[in-house]
Design goal:
Elements: H1 3-16, H2 24-34, H3 40-46, E1 47-53, H4 63-72, H5 77-94, E2 96-100, H6 101-109, H7 122-138, H8 142-148, H9 150-161, H10 165-175, H11 183-196, H12 206-211, H13 215-232, H14 236-246, H15 262-271, H16 275-287, H17 291-300, H18 305-317, E3 326-330, E4 346-350, H19 360-383
Antiparallel strand pairs: 1-2, 3-4
């Protein structure tokens, strides 16, 4: 069944119940209201219908919102109540369930059940029915996905075609188990994108996959298309994924946060000839107390003399004085030397950094700034 056919059946049912004045577009509005949305447009921006019976979700249609939409459409109070009751009856008997893109993404990426039996919230109910009634049906062969979820696939593709990043990402997550490739294949694909200077891929429809002989190749292409499209739509989850897999520079636009590893961003910036961004990300690490980042800023990133001394003083406060040599005995492979094992030993480690002293007043300011950074690091460590 298609979305148009679904709306047609709902419309025919309501007409048979005595609400002949409702148009097809108004029926779409009522369905969106039953799903908890203010408008049909809002529904299609955030959700899609899926091939699961509404009664299997454990959730009730929003009858009050449906009545209000009926009133907004010009129905009388009596007609509005009758239409709402008729729609709720239809949905309970043969209606399809709505699923929000974000709820679908959460269910597709969840490693374990997160709801509890006690004090069960609506979000817990959603997570449970998605896992048992929908996600479980995706965990079979690809043909089962195509045949068993046509309504959901149609809705997701339609939303993706309108540029909804979350719909793109949901499709990518759905396809991932069917089109996994090695890390080297992903890196090769990323190098090709970089060579072309275009961080996007050609769209592939589910219909093309169903009709094509080279199905696996098409599934991989579709997965990559939607993942990259979600990243171009500035979905941060997609941006981080495409950065990791393909070296996509789009993630360099993101602000620092707990889910971003600054060293990865620094490497990504260097790989894309953005040394100024690599410097910024290393500075984030240094301000958080990463002494290795401080060393790199001083030795390899043309740090200013004043800033270099700030890092030097901060390293001392952290017990990792960068002015001190740090050598140790190591084995040939770089592992720590063990006297009990014996064998040839080598010197490993780094020499202390020597800097030209600052003027007295500037040196005072460098110490003060280092002390301020140290206090912030200490406060953060106490909280964690």
């Amino acid at each position: 069944m298609t979305i148009k056919q679904y709306a047609f059946h709902v419309h025919a049912y309501l007409r048979a119940q005595g609400t002949a004045s409702l148009t097809r577009s108004q029926v779409h509005e009522l369905l969106a209201a039953a799903a908890g949305f203010a408008t049909h447009a809002a529904f299609h921006h955030q959700a899609a219908w899926c091939d699961v019976a509404w009664r299997d979700t454990g959730l009730a249609p929003d009858e009050g919102r449906v009545i209000q939409r009926c009133l907004d459409s010009g129905l009388s109070d009596e007609e509005a109540v009758r239409a709402a009751q008729g729609l709720v009856c239809f949905l309970g008997a043969s209606g399809y369930a709505p699923v929000r893109f974000e709820e679908l993404i959460a269910a597709l990426t969840s490693d374990e059940d997160e709801w509890t039996e006690a004090d069960e919230t609506e979000s817990d109910v959603v997570a449970e029915w998605l896992s048992t009634a929908l996600i479980s049906r995706m965990q079979h062969e690809f043909d089962t996905l195509l045949r068993g979820l046509p309504l959901l696939l149609e809705g997701l593709e339609a939303a993706a075609a309108r540029g909804i990043a979350a719909a793109h990402l949901a499709i990518a997550y759905m396809l991932e188990p069917y089109g996994e490739l090695s890390d080297e294949d992903d890196r090769r694909f990323g190098r090709e994108l970089r060579r072309c200077g275009e961080w996007s891929a050609e769209p592939v429809s589910f219909a093309e996959i169903a009709a094509g002989a080279d199905r696996f190749i098409r599934v991989v292409a579709k997965h990559r298309y939607h993942l990259l499209a979600a990243a171009r739509g500035r979905d941060r989850r997609a941006m981080l994924l495409t950065a990791t897999r393909y070296g996509d520079p789009g993630a360099l636009e993101l602000e620092p946060s707990d889910d971003i590893y600054p060293y990865d961003m620094a490497d990504l910036a260097d790989a894309n000839d953005r040394p100024e961004l690599a410097y910024q990300w290393l500075t984030v690490l240094a301000r958080e107390g990463d002494v290795s980042a401080m060393r790199e800023l001083i030795e390899d990133r043309d740090e200013t003399p004043f800033r270099a001394w700030v890092w030097m003083y901060l390293s001392r406060m952290l017990g990792r004085d960068l002015t001190q040599d740090r050598y140790q005995a190591i084995n040939e492979d770089g592992s720590p030397y063990d006297d009990d094992v014996g064998g040839p030993a080598y010197a490993g480690g780094v020499a202390g950094i020597e800097l030209t002293p600052l003027a007295v007043e500037e040196d005072k300011h460098a110490k003060e700034e280092a002390a301020q950074l140290f206090a912030v690091i200490e406060d953060r460590d106490e909280l964690t």
